[in-house]
Amino acid sequence: GGPRRLLLVSNSTLHGGGYLGHCQQHIQSFLGQKVKRVLFIPYALHDRDAYARTAREKFESLGYGLDSIHESYDPVEAVRKSEAIFIGGGNTFRLLKALYDNSLIHEIRKRVLEDGIPYMGSSAGTNVATISINTTNDMPIVYPPSLQALGLVPFNINPHYLDPDVKSTHMGETREERIRQYHEEPNTPPVLGLREGAMLLVEGDKATLQGVTGARLFLRGKKPTEHEPGTDFSFLLTDNNPLNL
């Protein structure tokens, strides 16, 4: 095994670019030369065949083979044999339910945290890498058995984080207000708001903000703070986790 290695991307597509185009260099540097094939988990979207085709095309263009778990006879065995895992975006509730339905929560945790294989997530795939999906933006279109997720890091992430539009007349809650409501509940972990174009690289006990946009960090009972690419977020990995995952 080895230390955990995670690349947690806010979004799959950035305005003006193609699928994973904005982070393809990060992907190549993250997976490196050793990884030959990536196991793709397309459970967040309904049309898994089309999703797998899109992902396969991208990863093959970067020099990696791609196997989609939905084409596997035994999903658990596919995870056990995988060299690297990529979970794509879509609906987080649908994704988490499928991970539970296929008995993959424990298996993925073991492969990533004990065996040290690289894990990449984008959007919903980033959400499920954290403690829980409580801070997803998605509608609960299906009912997973729990909101607890993979727990590969001891905090939560809000992908596609949006700042309030000062010119907007919309009176609904801002993303910041919704995260504050989450933190009104006891023992809730930090939430990292990743703007589109941002990603978090985790290597062992080191976490670094990468990409072209910043992030906003929410700690329970404190004012949110603004952070630029290059920020060292390692302290988020070592803080005592109130949920003891």
TrEMBL record:
Protein localization: Cytoplasm
Catalytic activity: Dipeptidase E catalyzes the hydrolysis of dipeptides Asp-|-Xaa. It does not act on peptides with N-terminal Glu, Asn or Gln, nor does it cleave isoaspartyl peptides
SUPFAM superfamilies: Class I glutamine amidotransferase-like
Gene that produces this protein: Aada
GO biological process: proteolysis
CDD domains listed in its UniProt record: GAT1_Peptidase_E
Keyword line: Cytoplasm, Dipeptidase, Hydrolase, Protease, Serine protease
Chain's role: Hydrolyzes dipeptides containing N-terminal aspartate residues.
Protein name: dipeptidase E
Gene Ontology cellular component annotations, sorted alphabetically: cytoplasm
Lineage top rank: taxon: Eukaryota
Broad class of where this protein is predominantly found: cytoplasm
Family statement drawn from the similarity comment of this UniProt entry: Belongs to the peptidase S51 family.
Pfam family, one: Peptidase_S51
Protein EC: 3.4.13.21
InterPro entries according to UniProt: Class_I_gatase-like, Peptidase_S51
NCBIfam families reported for this sequence: PRK05282.1
Enzyme class: hydrolase
Organism whose genome encodes this protein: Tachuris rubrigastra
GO molecular function, a single term: dipeptidase activity
Claim: Kinase is one of the keywords in the record: no
